[in-house]
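Q: What structure does this chain adopt?
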Amino acid sequence: MSVPFFRRLKAALILPALGALGGCSKAVLLSPSGDVAWQLRDIILVSTGLMLLIIVPVIAATLWFAWRYRESNAESTYSPDWDHSTILELLIWAAPLLIIIALSALTWVSTHQLDPYRPLSRIDADRPVPAGVKPLEVQVVALDWKWLFLYPGQGIATVNELAAPVDQPIEFKITASSVMNSFYIPALAGQIYAMPGMQTRLHAVINHAGVYDGFSANYSGAGFSQMRFKFHGMSQADFDKWVQAAKTSGGTLDRDAYLKLEQPSIAAPVQHFATVESSLYDAILNRCVQPGVQCARDLAGAICRAPRQAALELPPPLARPAAM
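A:
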């Protein structure tokens, strides 16, 4: 089959989906600005188009049968003994089966290609990630009810404000301070959970400069509805200026400052921190920011070592009696 055929097939599947979703034409999900979100949009449209291939004919057939075999239609054929049609059976079972196979293949391929833990292989559909390019690392902490972003490479941190250069891969490392949340920037990529004592990852890239909404997609208490932030897609020069502004105007984020920041608050204002304690994120992840609290990784190691240590300290077995 030729390439134009596949393009026509894709258009034939997407156009009905666009018509069905016409009321949401301005939704960010249908016009994202990041390559990962763009691929997710294509999956939504193709999946909707595939499902419409069976939904539309079934609805049309239902209406046609109701009209064709209405009581007042004396010309319709009356077949009281009809009970089987091989052609109808093939259509009824084959069409849904083929659609399920197509959806399964689409899901399998896209699940692996868009694994949030998998580093990006491309900037967009036409550009691979250049060799040697390192992603921008951003450590994300979901607090009650605000977002803390730490930039270990730049040595800064922000509250309820996130920025990244256009066309540079981003690696998010995500955790939470107390309850589970969901980190979500619809224009950038899909949502991923933030859980206390655990770290999830998300790889993404923003392809167009602009200001985009980010929020928590998982209910987490009284301030959940205002747990929002702005994500700025910038040129590299503007991003460098933004980092420099944070270094100039921000304070210091150490453990004491974090413990104060961690206290619940609603609609927290944007804050910048010029310097960040290097071990802070690791302490947040392992839930040992407070003085004297043992880190989770050390506690887990102690638990694992305990049975081995106990085995080493067991008394030697008694000598077996000599045979009589």
